[in-house]
Amino acid sequence: MVNLMPMPNCIEKLRGSVSFSNYQIIVENKYENAVLLFNKELEERLLISEDNYCYLFEFVFNKTLQEEQYVIHMDKSLTHIEAGSEKAFFYATRTLSQLFNLKNKRKVKKLTSKAYYIDDKPRFSYRSFMLDEVRHFFGVEQVKKYICMLSDLKINTFHWHLSDDQGFRIDFQTFPKLKEVASKRNKTKINSTENDDWDYSEYSHCYAYHEIKDIIRFAKQRYVEIVPEIDLPGHTSAIVSAYPFLHCNDEQHEVRGDYGVFKEIMCPGKETTYDFTKKLIDELCILFKDSKYIHIGGDEVNHENYEKCPDCQQRMKENNPVVSWI
């Protein structure tokens, strides 16, 4: 049984095997980006050889294949890869990387594999992984490790949760207090909500603008699209701690260190809330300009303050909503 993850739709063991100490990659210029990582992995794995014989990896575009579909045919002198897109070529290299064990950085004189015929395409077009960096911050290098794992597994979307009640994790110069105030909490609840255990050390983390851009570039090179999330209008306790004028009652509150669905959130009755939100989303769209989507949460809105807020009540009257508080 071949050890591949995810397992291809169709895999057949062929006669013979593949063994080489030198290699050559043949690919059209417009698809070169798809094989850059594969070439780097091969270079890092193989010792320098004086053997004049070069094993060939031939990448050929096939318009009859689906966008993320690829076909691999291996024999002793050539591995022939066909794909329906640049991304599919990259996915083919992720399969070959596993077959030749290229994640192992120990240098070898030769790389070997049994010969296979593989025809593979995804079952789902949207394949996503979500990372919450509000409750626990991971940092640039760890996030890059996650993105590498996602690309190896042919997961094409990275959902990046960057704001919540317990913190805001992007340093937007337009909103300096999001870093100065909203990125920090003075204590953190540990274990469960049913006890009184707290870590009273300050928890302070925020990505610099250039760090976010670096991660975006890194993900793009591995054909992983980032969907950033700034949760609105609920789960915005950290935002209103930085900008109290966004609160229904203009109240100052600390960034939450515990967990739940809190009432200290942005006020939808104030025009200033909409001005702030538009500017914030504009900044997010500029930073993540290559992402097709951004995520604004929209879940678990505690409406306790809304029921008593004159601005919220007035806006509801003006828009004639039918409201049923649950």
List keywords for this structure.
326 residues; 16 strands; 9 helices; alpha/beta; 4-stranded parallel beta sheet; 6-stranded mixed beta sheet; elongated
Fold and architecture overview:
The protein is an alpha/beta fold. Helix content is 28%, strand content 23%. The chain has nine helices and 16 strands. It has helices at residues 36-45, 86-99, 140-152, 177-180, 209-221, 237-242, 271-287, 304-308, 310-319; strands spanning 10-20, 23-26, 55-61, 70-74, 78-83, 111-120, 128-132, 157-161, 163-164, 167-168, 184-185, 188-189, 198-199, 203-204, 225-232, 295-297. It has a six-stranded mixed sheet with strand order 1-6-4-5-3-2, with helices on one face. A four-stranded parallel sheet has the order 7-8-15-16, covered by helices on one side. Strand 12 and strand 13 (198-199) form a beta hairpin. Helix 3 (140-152) packs parallel to helix 5 (209-221). The longest helix has 17 residues, at 271-287. The protein is elongated. The model has no long low-confidence stretch (mean pLDDT 95).
